[in-house]
Amino acid sequence: MTAVLDRIRAWPGPMIGRERLDDLDADDVDQALAELRAAGAVVIASGVITIINRDRIPA
Question: Order of strands across the sheet with 15-17?
Fold first, then answer.
């Protein structure tokens, strides 16, 4: 899951396509995205992850 968080945290823009995470473990991606959504860090719609609060992405 750390690789997923690192990738999202390092992404330069406010939006990242879900396909940018395809090379990572699918279970880790699902778990990380669920936790980020619950924390209010991201919104996911139509396969696009919008980072709405980088401060809520765990270090």
Answer: 15-17, 48-51, 42-45
Q: What is the pTM for the complete model shown?
A: 0.90
Say which residues have a Cβ less than 8 Å from residue 1's Cβ, sequence separation at least 6. Answer: 28, 31, 32, 35
15: number of Cβ within 10 Å:
12
Separation in Å, CA 39 to CA 22, 23, 55? 22, 24, 10
Q: pLDDT of 19-59, one tens digit each?
A: 999 999 999 999 999 999 999 999 999 999 999 999 999 88
The string of DSSP codes covering 2-48 is: HHHHHHHHH-SSSEEEGGGGTTS-HHHHHHHHHHHHHHTSEEEETTE
Let me know: does 18 contact 32? Beta carbons within 8 Å.
Answer: no
